């Protein structure tokens, strides 16, 4: 093997890194590290200019290793690996050093120490880089079918999108009816239409589609495998059904909080917005004269800090509808802040005000009080803007409560090995760069199971998830990152510890067929099944099993670099 | 004699953290994105799973003179690879006893769980561990040998 010739590129990231870490000093330091033949600073290494600078340097200095010290490999590794590949260098001869998220951004008040830390991180990266090997990526086939979990508007949109592209789709819905949350609504903001029109047209398209196989009522019981190759088992009305898919879209929606506030569940004339819609739908509301609505009930509080986004508009919609049904009625909306983002929403809000709905701002430190024994008779509220307490007569109190995560999210998260984040909602791979994908390849997410979304957003996210999912389906093959395990059959003693710890049954003990080792029992890795966790490499008592890109030598070289040993 | 010298210069421990790619490393990224400020003593090595870290490597790091080693992984039950962190947890128990046996304070090794959503926890763990190691003082195992 040729002697390592390492090139290192240190990113200012504008002022993100350069404003804290003394980048020129780190460059000078890097120049003196072993095997480094070129070191330079870039304003933005990820820019067109930075990338071409890497490509140029690979040729100019005959580099056979590239190190970039900038942000996080979780977002930018593919970009720099591609740059290496473009310049004819195997992309696995690239090493990433994180001096932004793990250094400049967390040590903003200590420039000197941040610079020292950046130097050490670079030193560790260079130490590892010298031991990198070229790798070939393994290609595996993608089974041309998808599973969509959730038959709400997001899930149905995703399923239709994929089916219309010609892919087979398994749509799994736990209720006996398609439509999800939409079935429960009385009207849709801002178009003020009955949602059944919308639902029926989508449901009809889904049910009549030759490419869509409906599983309903059904829940996913088991899922195993990896992108391109998932084995699914669902419980469909007590019967177990198994099938194979290449990709999975999670669109399981959310539920509406039933509050333990404002005497909900105790007094008959206290409803949630969803209860109100149900009564309107069933024409069971009855007479009303004084309506009070309270927003942010159980939302934007320490234990549930997020804004549910759809409740303000729901309250405005229903408040205006109350005025429409009974123009003589007094309708008050008590709010903390009104989220009426965008052109139409703001207009919708203005229309409601013009129709006579009164909006009163309350503060969470001084919340409205419900007066009444048998039923609500009035609501006392401190009007923050007028600086006075009001008592509003009330014969119907409606609470706007947030969407909260489904109870079965945790179970699904464990089954699919996808993360859930704040509030129990599913967590996407990256909030900006990969908003409808999970970090786990081949699994996508859309709609309110990710975060409260309105109908339009749910449909858009369903489509977005479907178009992401269609990429591997269309390509028919996926490349698996070459971080899988390898076994040196000469060193392997055939103890089988690696096979024992492998969660994916990717290692088997076999008689070797290699010349000179015929008949020796050794471990063999099935690369198609290996997910690159490295458990086997850590468990191997004599170093025969190694994980590509994370070998014992590579990790040890980083430890030694940090502790000043060679 | 040696001791009085050390009191004068502030002890700045050097701590290594192995972070799994899916939870702890992502949590560390989130801490950065959230601009949570923390001590500068910790250096992260990314591994795909906390279960990739062999105990020998942790011992090597401490024997080399590093003042502390952390292994940070997904919460139990949330491992990207199903059960890697369970192996890590089992190894940690044995490793702590071994460290004690060979004369390295077991507290120099810390196993903690940090999810991808726990940027605040990552920063808290860094602070706690740094304080803990500072209280222990420099790793003198190398000198003893």
Please characterize this protein's 3D structure.
The complex is a heterodimer of chains A (566) and B (145). Chain A is an alpha/beta fold. In chain A, 30% of the residues lie in helices and 24% in strands. Chain A has 15 helices and 28 strands. Chain A has a 5-stranded parallel β-sheet, with helices on one face. In chain A, strands 14-21-15-16-17 form a 5-stranded parallel β-sheet. In chain A, strands 2-1-3-4 form a 4-stranded parallel β-sheet, with helices on both faces. The model of chain A has no long low-confidence stretch (mean pLDDT 95). Chain B is of the alpha/beta class. Chain B contains 6 helices and 4 strands; from the N terminus they run H-E-H-E-H-E-H-E-H-H.
List the helices and strands and how they pair.
The complex is a heterodimer of chains A (566) and B (145).
Chain A: E1 6-11, H1 23-31, E2 36-42, H2 48-60, E3 65-70, H3 73-86, E4 94-98, H4 100-104, H5 111-129, E5 138-141, E6 145-149, H6 153-164, E7 168-172, H7 195-207, E8 212-215, E9 218-226, E10 229-236, E11 239-245, E12 247-250, E13 254-256, E14 270-272, H8 273-281, E15 290-294, H9 311-325, E16 330-335, H10 343-354, E17 358-361, E18 369-371, E19 378-383, E20 388-393, E21 396-399, E22 403-405, H11 409-416, E23 443-445, H12 455-475, E24 477-480, E25 485-487, H13 497-501, E26 507-511, E27 521-525, H14 535-539, E28 545-547, H15 552-562
Parallel strand pairs in A: 1-2, 1-3, 3-4, 6-7, 6-12, 7-8, 12-23, 14-21, 15-16, 15-21, 16-17
Antiparallel strand pairs in A: 5-24, 9-10, 10-11, 13-22, 18-19, 19-20, 25-28, 26-27
Chain B: H1 2-8, E1 15-20, H2 24-33, E2 42-47, H3 55-63, E3 68-73, H4 84-102, E4 109-113, H5 119-136, H6 141-144
Parallel strand pairs in B: 1-2, 1-3, 3-4
Helix pairs in contact in B: 2-5
């Amino acid at each position: 093997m040729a002697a390592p010739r390492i090139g290192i590129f240190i990113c200012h990231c504008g002022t993100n890194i350069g404003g804290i870490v003394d980048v020129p000093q780190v460059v000078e330091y890097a120049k003196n590290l072993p095997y480094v033949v070129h070191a330079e600073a870039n304003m933005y290494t990820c820019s067109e200019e930075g990338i071409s600078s890497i490509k140029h340097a690979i040729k100019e200095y005959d580099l056979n290793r590239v190190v970039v010290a900038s942000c996080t490999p979780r977002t930018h590794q593919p970009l720099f690996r591609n740059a290496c590949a473009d310049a004819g260098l195997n992309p696995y001869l690239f090493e990433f050093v994180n001096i932004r998220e793990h250094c400049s951004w967390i040590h903003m008040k200590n420039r000197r120490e941040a610079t020292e830390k950046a130097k050490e991180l670079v030193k560790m990266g260079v130490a590892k880089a010298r031991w990198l090997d070229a790798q070939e990526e393994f290609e595996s086939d993608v089974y041309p079918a998808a599973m969509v979990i959730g038959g709400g508007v997001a899930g149905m949109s995703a399923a239709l999108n994929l089916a219309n592209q010609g892919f087979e789709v398994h749509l799994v819905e736990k209720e006996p009816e398609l439509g999800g949350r939409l079935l429960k609504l009385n009207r849709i903001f801002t178009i003020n239409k009955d949602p059944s029109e919308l639902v029926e047209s989508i449901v009809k398209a889904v049910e009549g589609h030759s490419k869509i196989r409906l599983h309903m009522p059904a829940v996913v019981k088991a899922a195993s495998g990896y992108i391109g190759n998932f084995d699914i088992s669902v419980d469909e009305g007590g019967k177990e059904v198994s099938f194979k898919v290449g990709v999975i879209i999670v669109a399981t929606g959310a539920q509406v909080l039933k509050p333990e506030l404002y005497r909900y569940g105790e007094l008959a004339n206290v409803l949630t917005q969803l209860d109100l819609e149900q009564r309107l739908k069933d024409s069971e509301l009855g007479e009303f004269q004084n309506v009070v609505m309270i927003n942010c009930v159980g939302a934007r509080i320490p234990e549930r800090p997020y804004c549910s986004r759809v409740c303000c508009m729901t309250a405005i919609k229903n408040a205006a509808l109350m005025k429409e049904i009974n123009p003589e009625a007094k309708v008050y909306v008590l709010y903390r802040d009104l989220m009426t983002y965008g052109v139409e929403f703001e207009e919708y809000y203005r229309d409601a005000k013009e129709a006579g709905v009164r909006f009163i701002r309350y503060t969470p430190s001084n919340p409205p009080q419900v007066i009444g024994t048998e039923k609500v008779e009035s609501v006392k509220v401190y009007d923050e803007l007028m600086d006075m307490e009001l008592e509003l007569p009330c014969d119907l109190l409606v609470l706007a409560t947030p969407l909260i995560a489904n109870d079965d999210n945790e179970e699904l998260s464990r089954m699919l090995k996808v993360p859930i984040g704040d509030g129990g909602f599913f967590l996407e791979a990256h909030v900006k760069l990969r908003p409808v994908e999970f970090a786990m390849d081949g699994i996508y997410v859309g709609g309110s199971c990710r975060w409260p979304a309105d109908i339009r957003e749910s449909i858009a996210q369903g489509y977005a998830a479907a178009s992401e999912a269609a990429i591997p389906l269309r390509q028919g093959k996926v490349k698996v990152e070459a971080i899988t395990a390898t076994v040196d059959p000469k060193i392997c003693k055939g103890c089988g510890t690696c096979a024992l710890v492998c969660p994916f049954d990717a290692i088997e003990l076999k008689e070797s067929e290699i010349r000179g080792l015929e008949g020796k029992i050794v471990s063999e890795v099935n690369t198609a099944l290996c997910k690159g966790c490295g458990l086997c490499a850590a468990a191997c008592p004599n170093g025969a099993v190694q994980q590509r890109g994370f070998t014992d030598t590579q990790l040890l070289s980083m430890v030694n670099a940090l502790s000043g040993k060679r | 004699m040696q001791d009085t010298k050390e009191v004068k210069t502030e002890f700045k421990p050097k701590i290594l953290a192995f972070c799994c790619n899916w939870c702890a490393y992502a949590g560390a990224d989130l801490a950065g994105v959230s601009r949570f400020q923390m001590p500068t003593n910790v250096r992260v090595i990314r591994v795909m799973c906390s279960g990739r870290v062999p105990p020998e490597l942790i011992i090597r790091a401490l024997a080399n003179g590093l003042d502390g080693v952390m292994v940070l992984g997904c919460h139990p039950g949330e491992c990207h690879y199903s059960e890697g962190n369970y192996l890590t947890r089992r190894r940690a128990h044995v490793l702590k006893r071994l460290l004690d046996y060979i004369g390295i304070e077991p507290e120099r090794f810390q196993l903690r769980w940090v999810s991808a959503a726990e940027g605040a926890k990552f920063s808290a763990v860094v602070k706690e561990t740094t304080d803990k190691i500072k209280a222990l003082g420099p790793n003198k195992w190398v000198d003893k040998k």
